[in-house]
Predict the structure.
Amino acid sequence: MAKVKKSKNAFNRVFSLSALFLGLFTIWLISNKVTSSSCCGEPVFKNNFDYSGMKGEYHKKEVEVPFEVFENNFDSKKLSVLGSSSEEKWIEIDLSLQKLWAWEGNKLFLESLISTGLPWWPTPQGEFRIWAKLRATKMEGGEGKYYYNLPNVPFVMFFENDKIPGYRGYGLHGTYWHNDFGRVHSHGCVNLPTPIAERLYYWATPQLSVGKFFVKATPENIGTKIVIHE
């Protein structure tokens, strides 16, 4: 009987500690207003830059939008050169390594360090397609100390699949509010160095028309495949 009682007491202690940890974690979530459904914000489709949006906010810090982001010159040569391959284009993202590779068949087009979602805002895994591309758009979301309001996020490529609809706002895009690539930072999107995002924006499909900065995928102009894994 003594052994049974000791085992029961040990179980009760473990259960109490587990309940305490769960309670403290719940309080932490509430105090920081972290929600698992948040991502990069609902897509806002605008063809023009918001020239009043020169400053933003990211996790309680003011950030300035670099003037280079506003350079809105369309270079048709980028389309003719970068979009000339007959091989299937696809993008591979490794969450464990925090790296991205862009492929033309088995030929590497580019690779880069990236920043994907924080543990409580994970970047989804699976196979996706780019369904829209925008030269720049506003992204706003998060709560509490994780709130962000970022105007003119550059070279945005939204992706979706049958489980993750487009309105969730997951995408690849340029980043001006941090330069700490190789570590998780985002609310679910894939943060890219802006020069890398620019190259992918012109390289990936759906193909842009000359002089246009916004396009949605169609059956005749499908989006590039994206494979995200650990």
Observations:
- The first strand starts at residue 55 and ends at 58.
- Residues 25-38 have pLDDT under 50 and may be disordered.
- The two ends are 49 Å apart (CA to CA).
- The chain has two domains: 1-32, 55-229.
